[in-house]
Each structure stands twice: as C-alpha cells, then as structure tokens.
Amino acid sequence: MNIDKKIVVFKNDRGGDLFISLKLISSLKNEYRDITIYLSELNFGFNFLFDQFKIKKINYNLGIIDKIGIFFFLLRTNVDQVYILAPKNFYFYLPLIFKKIKFYAVTINGNKRDRPPIYLRKFLKNYIEISRDKIKNKNSSRDLQLNLLDKNITIDNLFKNLSIPVIQEDQKKIIPNNFIYLQFKKNFYEDFGWGINELSKIIELLLTKYENVLFSSDIEENDYNKYFYKNFSIIDLISNEIIKRNDRKIYFLNKIESKELFLVMNEAEKCLAPHGLVTNICYFLEKKSINLFNYQVSNFDYHFAKISFSEWYANMKIDFLFLKKDMNKTLNKINRYL
Predict the structure, then answer these.
(1) Which domains are seen in the chain, by residue range?
(2) Which end of the chain is less packed: N or C, by CB atoms within 10 Å?
C-alpha cells in the first residue's frame, strides 16, 4: 500500500450512482491509504460504508462556497490524484490550474452537449466515455469505471475495504421472516395516475407469494405518508419498536434512514421498486430484485431509454419490467417475476 500519496474522489451525486462506483473506490484502497471522498446531501447517508476513508460533504449542485472550498483544499493539500466520478463541469477546469495533479474522470458524450468539452479531455491523465447519444454502451458505467484504475491496482471484487454493516439482534427481532421489500415513490406512481388503490392491489398480490410485506416511501412528508402511518403497522428501526395498527402483515418503514434501509433490504427475500437506488443496492448485496421502468414510449423516448439502460444496467442480468398505465397488465407482469 502506498502510504504517501493523497487521493481525492469527487462522488457528490445520487445514492444509486454512489453504488455504481463502490468497486472502484474500494479498489483504490488496495493501493492508497489516504483517500478523501466528497459526497453530496443525496448520498451522504451511505457514509457508513467508508470508515476507512476521509469524508467531506458538499452540495449535489455545486455552489460558489463549495467551489472555493474545493479549490483551497487542492491548493493547500499535497494531492497526487483526483478521480472525477461525478462529471460536473467545474471539476474539468481544475486540471488547467493544478497541473501537478493527475486527474482521472468519467466523461459524458451527450445528445446535446459533452461533459467536458472534448478539448478539455487532453488535460486528464485517463478517462472513460459514457455514451448518451447514438451509440449503445456495451458495458455499464459500473464496469467502465474500473478502466480508470492504474494497472498496478488490484480490483477489490469482495469490497473488503468497505465497512458493510450487519443487522443487530435487537433490530432483527422486530423484522418479520419471509418478507418482500416494496418501495413506494410518489412521483413514479402519479406519473401513471396511480395512488393508494393501485398500491393496495400490488401489496395484495405480494401477499399471495410472501408472508409479509415491508414498504417505505419518500422521506419527505406528504399525504401518502400520513395515510400509511395511520393505516398500517409501523416498524421503526431507530427506536427498535413496532406500532401495531392491525393484524395484517403489512409494515410501513416510517422515515427509514439510509443505513436501516440497507439492512432491511439485506434481510428481504426479494425487492420490488422503481429502478434506481434500490436496484443498485440489491445488485451490491446480491439480492434478487424486480425493477420497474415507467418510460412513456415514443420513438425518441424509446431510443433514449435504450441508451440510458445500457449506461446503468448493461450485463447486470437482473429483472426489469417496462410498465404501462394499465394496472391489470402491471399486476400480471409483476406476478411472473415473483
């Protein structure tokens, strides 16, 4: 392990994107001891994975204070390498100033614009290109990012450099056996014109296959969450208690935090959710999942969807369902994968 070099990783994006980069980040730890990771308010909840790393929190959308802080950190710290894993334009101008630092980056070839512009890429030590235009990605971003690693770095396929939590006995006691985890997302359902009735139909279907259903919702307060809290039993993994509303085996995970969500998903028999964060956590945990897409298909949307799908999920070999508004067809599709 190289104990002298200082490494910086910019990963201030969304939670699902963080999991895409975990193998690269853990692999860096095989070679370098001093690694600082920048996380955003959207993925900082998963900082429990990085006990062996230094963590800094900045905004997902960089403000002037964030940019000044990054600039002075690089100026005052003897940084050797920077990994730009959240391809924000500001980062790509740093190599013009800090010429002694080696920069490695994920770049985007976009349908409307490139990030960064092609001329800035020559200042990078190494970079990979993600296509969002006419070319379908043969490998996912998860796999392509590993090409940023120097040849002397051993890939950590077992994530041994991450701090992966294990559920505690007092938490395990309040979680039922044989359950499927379901994620409710307000915007996803409302895009179809769905609401409580449609969610209830999905839950009833799940109960024909699993003894219990545990589900969570958006952490932001809304009318759906108020309804869930009043009408379903509650599992609270922070206080480790169950609030029983009825004898039905449906449990709402009220305001569940990132670490507790991670632990619940690891205990589940299977997970059902809109594609994104849950998809990537399940893949990391080697947990079976059913992942829902709600693209409204037109010629342009379908083409873009194929490109996006290849960026996120190429070669992952997991179950995906492309849904339409018809609830009966949706239930039939879900049922085939349960």
Answers:
(1) 2-148 (3.40.50.2000), 169-337 (3.40.50.2000)
(2) N
Which amino acid is residue 116, in one-letter code?
A: P
Please report the pLDDT score of residue 300 as a whole number: 45
What distance in Å separates the CA atoms of residue 204 and residue 226, rounded to the nearest whole number?
Answer: 20
129, burial (CB in 10 Å: exposed 0-12, middle 13-18, buried 19+): middle
Among 85, 70, 81, 84, CA closest to 19: 85
pLDDT for 164: 97
Computed over every residue of the chain, the mean pLDDT equals 90
CA distance 149 to 142: 13
Chain-centre distance of CA 43, in angstroms?
8
pLDDT in tens, 148-196: 999 999 999 999 999 999 999 999 999 999 999 999 999 999 988 899 9
Amino acid at 138: K
Length of the chain: 338
With a cut of 50, say whether residue 135 has pLDDT above it.
Answer: yes
Higher pLDDT, 68 or 294: 68
Q: Where are the alpha helices (DSSP H) in the chain?
A: 15-20, 22-28, 64-76, 94-97, 141-144, 169-172, 186-191, 196-207, 223-231, 258-267, 277-285, 299-313, 327-337
Exposed, middle or buried, 17 (CB in 10 Å: 0-12/13-18/19+)? buried
Instruction: Calculate the alpha carbon distances from 328 to 198, 325, 333 in Å.
Output: 10, 9, 9
Comparing 70 with 239, the larger pLDDT belongs to: 70
Q: Which residues contact 187 (CB under 8 A, 6 or more apart)?
A: none
Give the pLDDT mean for 65-81.
97
Whole-number Å distance between alpha carbons of 74 and 77: 5
Q: Hey, which residues does 251 pair with through a beta bridge?
A: 214, 233
Distance CA 184, CA 179 (A): 16
Q: If we measure between CA atoms, which residue out of 161, 273, 265, 173 comes closest to residue 217?
A: 273
